[in-house]
Amino acid sequence: MRQNIGSRKKRCSTTFRDEIEPSRAPPRDMSKRSAKVAAGTGVDIEIAEKLMTASEGENQAQTNSSSSDSVKPKHLFATIESSAGHIAFAGMGVDIKISEKLMAASKDVNQAQTSSSSSDSDNRVSNQMWGLKEELRFKEAELAMLGERIKDYKTELERTQLSLQGRQVELAEKERCLHSVEELITETNLKLEDRENQYKAVRRSVAQISVELRSNEKHLESLERSIRDSMAKEKALYYVNDEMKECCQILTFKERELKDIRKTIEAKNKVLDVKWKLLKEIKSKIALTTEELKSKEEHLKHVEDSTVKLERKLKQYQAFGTDLLLDAGNARDLQLLLGEHIRKNDILQSKISSVIQNSIEPAKLVLQAMNGFHPPASQNRDVDYDLSVTRRSCITLLEHLLEIRPWITDDVRGEAMKLAKEWKARMMMKPATSLEILGLLQLISAFGLASDFGVGEVRQLVSSGRPQQGNGSETWRSLGIMDDLAVAAGAFIVE
Question: In what ranges is there compositional bias, type Basic and acidic residues (predicted)?
């Protein structure tokens, strides 16, 4: 690489020298040298050609002339050659008075003409010399013009020299640049050698790493096999964990079920305890009712005597009762009908049950009839009737509804619940009578409101409905509701 750069540098320097020095080759003869110098300095080529023709004519004159006259043409040729040389020197920048030389040459020519007039050869020579003289005059004018051109060419030469100096400076700068490039190349060669050494070291390390890589690949394959085995075991363990989770979920669900069952059992035990207590109370009440039954048996004998009389009037009441039931179009009429005839004939109750059962909404009809159980104060003042009879009629309607057990809608049940809460609120405000307690119990049983009332509340109602005086049982017997109260409480507990 260094040899190539040196050869390129030599070729560039030789080419540049050839370009700036094109005219240093030595001429073969004087005339040709003058022509070349004139051409190299910018002199007109036609003038150089004419000088060359003049020198050739002089040579011919030398061959044709005699030996005696040969000195003068030679002297003339020498003069012309010297003038041509002066021209050449002028082209090269030498300051010589060309015009004086030409005048001296013309004098020599005149002398030669006077001395050579004797012979024909001298005439020919004189003719030639005269022609040369004319030509020299012509050349003198051309040389004057040529001098001006030489001045111009001289200034141009100075400019060229200045440009040449600039080129030399530029060449020196380029040589310095080339020297810096060579230094850079040497540095890069050194760096390249270092890089080659590094590359060799890297190749050696790569070879070592490739060996290690092969061993690592083998180790990696063994690791992959072990990882596959561990993944398979992990999947199996994952399935086992899923099964364990499912089993745990099932166990937690079973535990919740057991807790719920325990809670329900505890609740049922509490309910059973309450029912057992109520059952004891009912047993005590049954003992009381047995005593009442004895009194009622005596009353039954009296009733049997009166039934004979009633059987006679039965046919009359059947026809009359049918007409009255047909007039009971709404709950108010049904309540009034019961209030008017409940004391007259117990047989009408069977027909009341059929009327309730044949109505469109039996529960709604009975619920509307319950509005007279607690009438407002204005109605008590306006209407003169026995409140106990109205309440008995309401209880009778609830009993018939409980026997029929029709389908009760949610709206009707909600209204019944609202009415039961109102009755309970009235009972909490003032002491309740036995008819009020029995009516509330029958309302709860007939409309299926047992789930909304606790057992303790019913127990409280039953206990609060019992009079605290000594003649409490007599009062219940006189009202004839002791058995009804016990039956209603028992039905509520069963529900």
Answer: 16-32
